[in-house]
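Researcher: Can you fold this with adenosine-5'-triphosphate in place?
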Amino acid sequence: EGRFLTDFEVDDHLLGSGGFGCVYKCKHKLDLQNYAVKVVKILKKTKKKILREAQFLASVEHQSIVRYYQDAEEEDEIDTDEEEAVFGTEGNLLFSGSVEKGVVSLLFIQMELCHGNLSEKLENLVDNPELAYNWFRQFMEGLSHLHSLGIAHNDLSTKNIFLDKNNNAKIGDLGVAKEVGSTILTEDSLGAELYRAPEKKKGVPINSKMDIFSAGVILYELLYPIKTGFERCLLLQANREKGELPIDGHSGIDLLVKNMVSHHPRERPTASDVLALLPEIKNEFVGSLDRRLRGI
Ligand code: ATP
Ligand code: MG
Ligand code: MG
């Protein structure tokens, strides 16, 4: 029996599953804390690389980035005869997508347990416009830290901004984060295309400005409550395809959204530019969101 099963008690309920694996709520038997543990299958031949990447994630410590813990553990080598889609992981700073035969290992990645994500909270911000501002500021703090390490998140969306037990926003799902300058190998996961910068295509080097486009879409969603999923889809699609977003004002905050989602990457501010600007436009942010939420 591997260390994972001896160290953790697995809670019955699955927190969720994605293209790369399943995430379970688990209690550590020694420290008695709850964690989210992601179980992914990896091909043995890419194991070293993925473990190195998992180790890198564990070295990132920032209050606005979901904590990954050391020694992502591997166990259970299985020989697969079938052709099986084995993807990279939260270690997928990296490798993905090939469908091959081979020896597969299970990898267990221990993460800080989060409680919900921004996407679930967007509908319920009435009376709380200041919370939305704080979440966005925390998000930008995490992003500017990640970028300072030369890493782009590469899959930012409201679903990947998590809330911790103190209701602080943290960037999570770092599975496809990549070094700036490395080449894009895969397309984003389904649902993520509305956040994908228009210049982001297979073969193009990753640039942190691609994250800024996604962050601009997230800022738009925070500031302009959208009534239905259908409306949201139409609006964000028009933004991606034609650079059109209904932004009514000319205030600092409106200008910021426009610049962040610009189709010209050079017009987009960096995460630290955004951070520096935020205190100045806090009142506009909170005030305009408050008016929209109350339908004034
Ligand atoms: P994709 O494979 O396309 O990236 P995904 O992002 O939904 O899809 P995962 O990253 O595997 O897939 O996450 C699966 C689910 O687990 C998600 O719904 C997410 O909300 C949840 N989850 C991931 N990390 C954590 C965490 N640290 N704490 C709590 N829940 C988490
Ligand atoms: Mg996700
Ligand atoms: Mg994911």
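Model: Folded with adenosine-5'-triphosphate in place. The radius of gyration is 20 Å.
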